[in-house]
Every structure is written in structure tokens, then in C-alpha cells.
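User: Hey, my collaborator sent me this sequence without any context and asked if I could get a structure. I don't really work with proteins. Can you help?
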Amino acid sequence: MAATDRIDRVFCLPYAGGTSLIFTKWPRPAGAPHWVGLDYPGHLLTMSRPPAASISEPASGLLPGVLEAG
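Assistant: No problem. I've predicted the 3D structure and written it out in C-alpha cell form, which is a compact way to encode the shape of the chain:
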């Protein structure tokens, strides 16, 4: 990534026990990237998915949210 490349989106993961709703309260200054809050599988907006049973599962469980925000 070159120093002149613009970042349009920043994907944010909530702290332990939190949800993506925490990021809706973050201020977005003019010209700042769009904050995209993601929920871990089985939390808040992803309740239809089973919760992760291992440390490797969250990455694949978060991928749909990244692709949707694309």
C-alpha cells in the first residue's frame, strides 16, 4: 500500500462481550474512513450462526460481514 492510497473502510471487532453497536457511536470526522462494525458468529446480528467453538472459527465466521460491506 502506497502512502497516497486512501483507506475507505476500517473493519472493527468489538471487545469481549461487546457487539458491533458500540461503533455506531464513534464520531466520523470529515474524510475519515467508514467504520464497519462486525459481530462475532452467534452474537447480536449473527445470532442465526452458531458461536465459534475454537479460535480459528471466528475468521471464517466474520468473512460474510466483510464481503457484504465490500
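In plain terms: Helices lie at 57-69. You can pass these C-alpha cells on to your collaborator as they are.
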